[in-house]
Amino acid sequence: MQFLFNRINDFKQVKPLTKHEQLVKAIINCIESKKLKRGDRLPSINKMVSEVGFARKTIVRAYEDLKGKGIVESKNFKGYYIADINTKTKLRVALVLYALHTFQEDFYNTFREELGENYIINVFFHHNNIETFKNIFTRITGRYGMYVVAPIQTPDIKPILEQFPEDKLLIVDRHINLANNYSFIAQEFENTTYNQLLKLVKEIKKYKEFVLFYRDDIDNPEGIFNAFKRFVKAYNINFSVKKQYTKGSISKDKLYFFISDSFLWELLKDSKEKGYILGKDFGVLAHNDNVIKEIIFGGITTISTDFKKMAIASANFVKFRKFTNNIMPSELIRRNSL
Predict the structure, then answer these.
(1) In the chain, which residues fall in CATH 1.10.10.10?
(2) What is the pLDDT of residues 228-276, one digit of tens each?
(3) Strands 330-333, 301-305: pairing kind
(4) Residue 282 per-residue DSSP state
(5) From-to residues of CATH 3.40.50.2300 in the chain
């Protein structure tokens, strides 16, 4: 490895570079010149300290930086190895989401586009299952330079997330209180949903019943349920809460409020089969907007945050590591479904 030590000494002469940057650039240079190849073992921390004279923490930081790019990997008790010779990668990002809902697909596509091709993004889905969440982090911890996570809102996962440095973790979509001052770009569900429902009092009162489809055993936000209960009580509205839509159960003069798109599609299919006209015979309100809701059946009225804006803000955090505590606003998008 004398060639690597020689290259580090060369970069020591480049005064604007920090010691950490000198090490990173020297290793990358040796990969690009094909002196280091995939599978090669790097000098141990102790060896680097004795050869180049830098502090142990400086060398560890450089190796960890290269791990975050996916260039280096560490093996327990065996040291650091070259894992990838693609030196153009700026960062490997683990994106942990609930599931591939349409709105989260919008988030991913915008996030991917905003970061650009030199960022590697691997996506994982936990489906609001704590064991699945834990298993994901058992596999990915220490393998990425950044973790962008839509968390399950339970204290059980806090110790998992609090193991990461503040500049390597971004909480998105749902907020969770962590011990340290982590960045987040999230939604607030209860007050924003309630305030948007207030704008629809006149339309909602046209219907004989306001029906919410809500399940507390999946990723439906509790804040939406709380807002719904507050609203129907405050305005003396006849209501019901159902866990799922039953095929063929659609009725006239009811307003249906959906969090899950799968139930929405079933109801719209039934309405077509029965010849019911959306916005006249029955109404629909949905959470989380997307392009399908914009065009289907003349348009579905939604209460939604802008997931593309959330994705752009998240990508900027990954690129610049600037601390943020951002609650994204939700808005009412009126269409013909009411």
Answers:
(1) 2-82
(2) 999 999 999 999 999 999 999 999 999 999 998 989 999 999 999 999 9
(3) antiparallel
(4) B
(5) 91-187+307-328, 190-305
Cα dist from 41 to 21, 75, 78, whole Å: 20, 10, 9
Buried b (16+ CB within 10 A) or exposed e, 113-131: ebbeeebbbeebbbebeee
Question: What is the dotted CATH code of the domain comprising 190-305?
Answer: 3.40.50.2300
CATH 1.10.10.10 fits 2-82, yes or no: yes
Q: Quick one: which of 211, 193, 222, 192 has its CA closest to 128?
A: 222
3-state SS class at 90: coil
DSSP 237: -
Q: Given this structure, which CATH class describes domain 91-187+307-328?
A: alpha beta
Place of tokens 């000198």: 22
State pTM to two decimals.
Answer: 0.84
Q: What burial class does residue 75 get, using C-beta atoms within 10 Å of its C-beta: 0-12 exposed, 13-18 middle, 19+ buried? A: exposed
Task: Give the integer Cα–Cα distance in Å for 37 and 251.
Answer: 67
Contact criterion met (CB below 8 Å) for 97 and 51: no
Q: Which two tokens stand for residue 79?
A: 């040291």
DSSP state of 189: -
Report the run of H or E that residue 197 belongs to, with start and end: helix 190-198
Residue 204 tokens, joined: 């909602």
Give tens-digit pLDDT for 19-55.
989 998 999 898 889 999 999 999 999 999 999 999 9
Q: Which of 200, 280, 188 is nearest to 232 (CA)?
A: 200
